[in-house]
Amino acid sequence: MKLAEALIERADLQKRAAQLEERLVRNLQVQEGELPSEDPLELLNELLSVVTALELLLPRIHRANLEARLPGGLSLTEALTRRDLLDLRLKVLRRAAATASERQNRYSNSEVKIVAVIPARELQRLIDPLAKQRRELEAEIQQTNWLTELPE
What we know:
- This protein has one domain.
- 69% of the residues lie in helices and 0% in strands.
- The protein is mostly helical.
- Helix 1 (3-26) packs antiparallel against helix 2 and helix 3 runs antiparallel to helix 4 (120-147).
């Protein structure tokens, strides 16, 4: 199995676990004399089996992330960390740029005028190369995910 396939399976299992948890909680209590719409014990057992499947899959994904290398030599773990940090930088810069470009409506000259301390265009000059780095890194990560076999 390829790492990319394992990541898809992980996402499916995580969604399934969340759905089962929600169904379990909804069926744990009923009005006296009523029956739940689904058997809570069956839901709990199914949830526990999904968690067991995740317990077997996650360590294999982590090992693959440590062992696999991107074309530039970074491990997948290092690349994922770099991607997360690029995402953080981009989030902050994009929010700052959006705030700096907000227009203030003033109804008279006597109202306080609000101005951006850092011009939005300067922030955008920082955003563009980071966004390009992020896109290129994501492409390398995805390529590596599809080329990497999941360890046993």
